[in-house]
Amino acid sequence: MNRQERTDVELVQAVLAGELEQFAELVERYEKLVFSFLLTRLNDLQEVEDIVQETFVKAFRHLASFDCERRFAAWLLTIARNLLIDSRRKAGRSIASTNLVNEVMLTDSAREAASQPSEVVVRRERFRSIVAMIQELPEELRTPFLLRVINELPYQEIAEVLDVPLQTVKNRIFKAREILREKRESL
């Protein structure tokens, strides 16, 4: 079986058996997920990158404690969330939403170069209004919504990451969608 076909559990077991280089595959698979999860909560790109790195270091150190019945992504995002909370607590700051998401997500120069200038303007304005509506959502609704819509995580995994009941996650995502639908219709 080649490295790309291995499941997360198989990769974890390989790392624990001494194939330390296999951890790089787990990093490749989940670095973007952890990055985007943190990006919606922090204003400082350097701090996001630092916590992403710290997340993987901590995951590596505590890999033996990983419960193979859980999904690796959920376990990893739980570590990231806890590191974020610790970081904010040490700094004496609360977790803030950010306009950094706008900066990162609005940059798509390759597609824009091939488009008409008027199309680019319309697309950017539409996207900015959608991002603004999402950022106006309360944090308790915005986080599960983004994990589901942007990161495409299953509801159960979101529940594990946020440490809330599954039904709470479903209700929050439903409510976020309802609020966004109402805002779009009122435009």
What does the model show?
The protein is an all-alpha fold. It has 3 domains: 1-96, RNA polymerase sigma factor, region 2, helix turn helix motif (Rna Polymerase Sigma Factor, Chain: A), CATH 1.10.1740; 98-135; 137-187, Winged helix-like DNA-binding domain superfamily/Winged helix DNA-binding domain (Arc Repressor Mutant, subunit A). The protein is built from 10 helices and no strands. Helix 2 (23-39) packs across helix 4. The protein is globular and about 55 Å long.
Quick recap:
By secondary structure, the protein is an all-alpha fold. The protein has helices at residues 8-16, 23-39, 45-61, 72-91, 100-105, 109-113, 117-136, 139-149, 155-162, 166-185. It folds into 3 domains: 1-96, RNA polymerase sigma factor, region 2, helix turn helix motif (Rna Polymerase Sigma Factor, Chain: A); 98-135; 137-187, Winged helix-like DNA-binding domain superfamily/Winged helix DNA-binding domain (Arc Repressor Mutant, subunit A, Orthogonal Bundle), CATH 1.10.10.
